[in-house]
Design goal:
- It comes from Limnobaculum xujianqingii.
- This protein is an alpha+beta fold and 225 residues long.
- The protein has 8 helices and 9 strands.
- Strands 4-5-6-7-8 form a 5-stranded antiparallel β-sheet. It has a two-stranded antiparallel sheet with strand order 1-2. Strands 3-9 form a two-stranded parallel ribbon.
- A hairpin with a 5-residue loop joins strand 6 and strand 7.
- Helix 6 packs antiparallel against helix 7.
- It is globular, with a radius of gyration of 17 Å.
């Protein structure tokens, strides 16, 4: 039986896109652990750590739970606004699908079909906080490895050169790792967890960077003009 998180994503997925098997496995793990909340509008949001334990652990200078990210499929209406457009563009709607919120200020992660027909995981900064606009990972396993590193949020690229809780970062919050999720990623996909985000994110470009080496950033800038 298909879980609700996967069902919701498939319901809004453009015809040319597909759900990577590893993302489906993540959704299954989330729902098996009970790490989700159902809302009155019918949408389900998934987490990597139980929300009640996260709240209980939160103090002024530390918390448990590793990276905070919210998985839901109800953030695809109005994609045109992120690109500064007045009308929906088929080019955008057929190649892009938001599946998670990466930052409390509204940043998002999406599946994106690149010019070669390959599916990438990309970041769409809110613009009011994060302005990160780039390919986060070339595949879903690398995206899960990125999440497992344990940053507070993955929308702040100024922290990418450093490990979580490094004295050179300015997060001001000690983030204890989500060991359960780390172990699941390592065991399920027979992989390792890198030390920093830059081991995965090749070109952490920002909005407005027309000369970026990052393919998504260049594509996004082209759509906005």
């Amino acid at each position: 039986m298909m879980g609700k998180l996967l069902e919701q994503l498939k319901a809004v997925l453009p015809e040319k896109l597909w759900v990577p098997d590893e993302l489906a496995q993540l959704y299954q793990w989330i729902e098996q652990q009970g790490y989700y909340e159902d809302y009155d509008d019918g949408h389900r949001t998934g987490f990597l750590y139980p929300a009640d334990k996260l709240e209980e652990s939160w103090t002024d200078d530390e918390r448990q739970g590793g990276t905070i990210i919210l998985f839901n499929a109800n953030r695809n209406d109005g994609l045109r606004y992120w690109f500064g457009l007045e009308e929906d563009s088929p080019e955008i709607c057929q190649r892009l699908c938001v599946f998670a919120r990466t930052g409390a200020e509204g940043s998002e992660a999406a599946l994106w079909l690149d010019d070669d027909g390959k599916l990438k995981i990309v970041h769409m900064g809110s613009g009011s906080g994060s302005i990160l606009s780039c390919v986060l990972a070339d595949n879903m396993v690398d995206f899960l490895r990125l999440l497992a590193i344990g940053y507070d949020e993955i929308c702040w690229n100024e922290e990418f050169p450093y490990p979580p809780n490094d004295e050179q970062s300015d997060s001001g919050m000690h983030i204890h790792p989500n060991v359960e999720f780390q172990q699941w990623v390592q065991k399920t996909f027979n992989t390792t967890i890198p030390a920093t985000a830059l081991d995965i994110v090749k070109h952490p470009a920002e909005m407005g960077d027309r000369d970026s080496e990052d393919a998504f950033c260049r594509w996004a800038e082209k759509q906005s003009n």
